[in-house]
Every structure is written in C-alpha cells, then in structure tokens.
Amino acid sequence: ALALKGIAYDQEPVNLLKDGGQQFSTKFQAVNPMQQVPVLKINGIILSQSLAIIQYLEETRPNPRLLPQDLKKRAKARMISDLIVSGIQPLQNLTFLKQMGEEKNMEWAQHNIACGFKALEQILQHTAGRYCIGDEVSMADLCLVPQVFNAQRFKVDLAPYPTITRINKALLELEAFQVSHPYRQPDTPAELRA
Amino acid sequence: MSTALVKPVLYSYFRSSCAWRVRIALALKGIAYDQEPVNLLKDGGQQFSTKFQAVNPMQQVPVLKINGIILSQSLAIIQYLEETRPNPRLLPQDLKKRAKARMISDLIVSGIQPLQNLTFLKQMGEEKNMEWAQHNIACGFKALEQILQHTAGRYCIGDEVSMADLCLVPQVFNAQRFKVDLAPYPTITRINKALLELEAFQVSHPYRQPDTPAELRA
C-alpha cells in the first residue's frame, strides 16, 4: 500500500522468531499491546491491523485509489480482503502453528489455506478481471499476493486455483509488489535475499 | 419486482458473534430484514449444505442479500450499510478516530474470534480447545483493555457508538460463555454494559432471535 501510494517510510524490524520473538518485548508491547506486526506510526498516531492501516492511507492519500468507487465493488473488495485476513491467515500464522503443536500444525495450515482458496476461487469467478475486482488494483489484491506466498511456503498445491494463480502472477509484475516483497526487505536474511 | 421492494435477507445463527455484529448494525440503521437461519451444529452443520455453499463458498454466516448483491464478512457488510445508509453513522468522521474504530474491530474480528470459533475448536480437539479459546480471548482482551485507555469515552471511541462497539459486545458474550474472568478488563466491562442498554443491542441479542432455542429464549 505504501509503495502504491508512493509514501516514503522507515522500517523498524521486529523479528518474530529471534529472542523468543521480538514482538513480545516490553518495548514493542508499548507500541502494540497485541504484540503483532504490522504497526504504522504516521501523522502522530500509532495504528495496528493491516486493513485499518491501509484504509487510513486510502482516506488520507486517495491517489491512486485502493478501493473501488462503486459501492458494491468496494464491498466485494472488503469481503475478499476480510476472507483472507480473518478466514485464512489467522488459521495458519505463527500463533496458530504454536498452539496446534508440531505434530499436526502443517496439515491444518495447509487445510485452512486450501479451504479458503477454494472459496476465494469461486468468488473470483464473479468479481475478477485482470485483478481481484475488475481491472484496477484494490485492497483485495494486497491481501491475495502475500497469502499465495504463504501457500507456496506451506507447499499447498495451487493447481485447483487457476484464477488466484493468474491474478497473483499479474500483480507480481507490478513494481509495488516487487519492491515490498519479503526477499527484498532490510531485514531479509542474506541467504534469502533476491 | 424491483430490488428496492425486496427486504434484505440475513443468513444468521442466533449464537454467531459475527452474525450478531450485523444484526446490531441493521437495527441501529433501522433496516427491516428477513432472517434465514443456518444452524451451525445441526445436521453436521447446515453451513456445509450444497445449497448454502452456493450462497457463501466460505460456508460461514453472516451473509446479507441486499440491493441485488450477496455479501459475506461482517465488517464488509457493515461498511456497505454505512456507505449506503449513512445515518446514524457507525464510523467516526475524524479519520484518525475512524482508523482506531477499524483497528479495534479488526483486533476482535481477526485477532480473537478466529482463535475461539467453531472451526478452531474442532481443529484443536476436545482435549485442549477450551483452554486455548480462553487463553486467546484473554490475550486479546488484555491488549484491547490497554488500547481502550486511549480511545474510549462512553463507548469504544469517545461517546458515539461505532463499528468497534458492534464487535465488542458479541465478543464479551463469547468470553462469558467460555467462562473467561472479566475482572482484569474493567473498561471492556463498563463499555459492554453501556452498550447493552441500547435497544439495537437488545433486539439483536442471541436470546431474542427467531432461531433461539426455547430453553434459552429471553
């Protein structure tokens, strides 16, 4: 979102695995009591929750737009975003994996991604053009690409989801999706750096 | 028949906290609607029927059929209602307060509810699921209690009811069902009490729905 909107920013890395998880430090807890990333400090406020942050950016820096002008399409963009953000990600993230336990967590993570993608593939039949909602990049696309990356990390077979695959490929051609990629960040480990 | 003459239809389960959020919004906005009950426990879970899968491929409630579209995801529904029927407002006019309202809503909707809902409980397994559900609610409420120190007035964001409040009350109801001790969360408790005095939060309550079981009916 920051890249698409052309907003320059500094990064404070929070390593979720090192030192028992740096998100649990007293210092970071003061930044976000929920002990999660991302958090954005901007215009004198501290915001957590990715969709709250993205919609604040949208409302304060409206160009280029990340939510369709048409209210029904806008609702669909939010619906797809929420499906991923509430319906898939929390059922395969670090917290979930830790709570599930090592024996079963990979299976469940794969299952939950597959279930969510199966639903999403059906929904996209009705909404997608070049991207999730017609031919304009929206908040839904910002949620899709990172979730596909996770699916690949968890070795979920993507063959049943041709629309998701096509859209993901089209989005990864855009500069904002490349410059923000996990393998091109200040805190990307050397062995993964693109 | 024009879609304007057809009442919206809400697919709902009386005890679904996600559906309750939307029921509150519809009540606050004064929108008359019909309910289609989807029993999440009976028949192996009616959300898994072929018929309902066509309504929502994600096989979850709530779903709202309105103005010729079918919308799932409670916050997407609520914000569509907000944008098409702006009065009374459910999101603050001030953009920073609006962001805080969304932040609190998302904390509950993505950070607590999915870690204690039916899907989670089934996947965790009977032995450990109650412990984890209680832990996840407590963790989320601990964070929320801190955040509310900076945002709350009579309600979550100052003195006007917002989307955050629509998310709070159903989650407190769940906390009580899971026997989470609420003593460490006095702000959450106070706000919940104030909200439950409002008609929209009462008429939408799980114990007053068409599909509420007789023994629970208020």
Automatic annotation (TrEMBL), chain A:
Cellular component aspect of the GO annotation? mitochondrion
Question: One GO molecular function term?
Answer: maleylacetoacetate isomerase activity
Tell me the Pfam families matching this sequence. Answer: GST_C_3, GST_N_3
What range(s) does the GST N-terminal domain occupy? 1-65
Which residue ranges does the record assign to the GST C-terminal domain? 70-190
Cofactors required: glutathione
Q: Which reaction does it catalyse?
A: 4-maleylacetoacetate = 4-fumarylacetoacetate
Pathway participation: Amino-acid degradation; L-phenylalanine degradation; acetoacetate and fumarate from L-phenylalanine: step 5/6
Q: Which InterPro entries match?
A: Glutathione-S-Trfase_C-like, Glutathione-S-Trfase_C_sf, Glutathione_S-Trfase, Glutathione_S-Trfase_N, GST_C, GST_Zeta, GST_Zeta_C, Thioredoxin-like_sf
NCBIfam families on file: maiA
Q: Which family does it belong to?
A: Belongs to the GST superfamily. Zeta family.
The record's listing under PANTHER family reads: MALEYLACETOACETATE ISOMERASE (PTHR42673:SF4)
- For this entry, the protein name equals maleylacetoacetate isomerase
Q: Which gene encodes it?
A: GSTZ1
